[in-house]
Specification:
It is a single chain. By secondary structure, this protein is of the alpha/beta class. The protein has two domains: 190 residues, Vaccinia Virus protein VP39 (Rossmann fold); 79 residues, Putative methyltransferase TM0872, insert domain (DNA polymerase, domain 1, Orthogonal Bundle), CATH 1.10.150.170. The protein contains 13 helices and seven strands. Strands 3-2-1-4-5-7-6 form a seven-stranded mixed β-sheet, sandwiched between helices. Helix 2 links the parallel strand 1 and strand 2. The protein starts with a helix and ends in a 10-residue tail after the last strand.
Length: 310
């Protein structure tokens, strides 16, 4: 959704832009190409992604800063680069095509894929997916399949994982796919397998927690009329973004039972997308992985000072 991102970020205005999920550098390159006066700081916790982005963006060395870091750490990273405020920020959530396509990264359900799924690389970061499936209590397994996988048969799935790991610890995608087929049927759809693998990935990387923490931190780095654009691929991610943008755009967020307003009493900005922007049919045809994408945009407004300026 490059065109949609550029429409809402407006990099032609110039200034600093944060690409908090740089991946291979595609969005960063588009921002730099559209905005001749724009400079981008790219963050990604995957060292492979940073190396790929550095190679792709070598022609923009004077206008590009890359750091191996989680996007929630932007408030700590930006001061080290002498960046006082952002004109725009982008979070393209989820897993990149590079990570999905590289078997050694362990994100896909293709046969023989190791159960890793760590955003930070093959060795760093949190416990791999195999460890989660092999050691998580039954209640935790069920919660992940129910909340993150939105699976109706979450109890049976959790019980089957717990039963099988006693006989044979989970090691590869084949092991988890066998459990899914046992519970959902031998002709289970690829979309159902993707949904449940995604649920495990979200848990392994604590993706929803990271998003909850990062959104207000990045918001407070925006200049007046600075914009935050988020692309989500999961309903739970999109719900977090929708709720945050809605609350920031309200003048009052006090509980309804309070007789008088005790909160900030004014909006922090305004939501630019009434409904989420979806990819065009043409883009989905070119890239089927974009079909679940939802883009939302928000703009900081008014006399509320940014953290950097206060």
């Amino acid at each position: 959704m490059v065109d949609e991102v550029l429409t809402h970020l407006e990099p032609e205005r110039g200034g600093w832009y944060l690409d908090g999920t740089t991946g291979g550098g595609g969005h960063a390159a588009a921002i730099l190409e559209r905005g001749e006066l724009a400079t981008v700081v790219g963050l990604d916790r995957d060292p492979d992604a940073i190396n790929a982005a550095r190679e792709r963006l070598e022609g923009y060395e004077g206008r590009m800063r890359l750091r191996e870091a989680d996007f929630r750490d932007a408030p700590e990273i930006l001061p080290t680069l002498k960046i006082e405020e952002l004109q725009g920020a982008l979070l393209d959530l989820g897993v990149s095509s590079y990570q999905l396509d590289k078997t050694a990264r362990g994100f896909s359900f293709r046969p023989g894929t190791p159960l890793l799924m760590r955003m930070g690389g093959t060795t760093g970061g949190r416990r791999p997916a195999a460890d989660f499936l092999n050691t998580a209590p039954l209640e935790e397994l069920g919660r992940v399949f129910r909340e993150y996988g939105e699976e109706r048969r979450w109890r049976a799935l959790a019980r089957e994982v717990a039963r099988r790991r006693v006989e044979h610890p989970f090691e590869s995608s084949d092991d988890f796919v066998a459990v899914i087929r046992t519970i959902l049927g031998p002709t289970v759809r690829a979309g159902d397998k993707a949904r449940l693998f995604q649920a495990v990935r979200i848990e392994v990387n604590r993706e929803l927690e990271a998003l909850d923490v990062a959104l207000p931190r990045i918001r407070d780095l925006l200049a007046d009329q600075g914009r935050l654009v988020v692309i989500a691929y999961h309903s739970l991610e999109d719900r977090i973004v929708k709720r945050a943008f809605r609350d920031w755009s309200r003048s009052c967020v006090c509980p309804p039972e309070l007789p008088v307003c005790l909160c900030r009493g004014k909006p922090l900005g305004k939501t630019l997308t009434g409904r989420p922007v979806r990819p065009s049919e043409e883009e989905v045809g070119r890239n089927p992985r974009a079909r679940s994408a939802k883009l939302r945009a928000w703009e900081r407004r008014g006399d509320v000072p940014s953290v950097a300026a206060s």
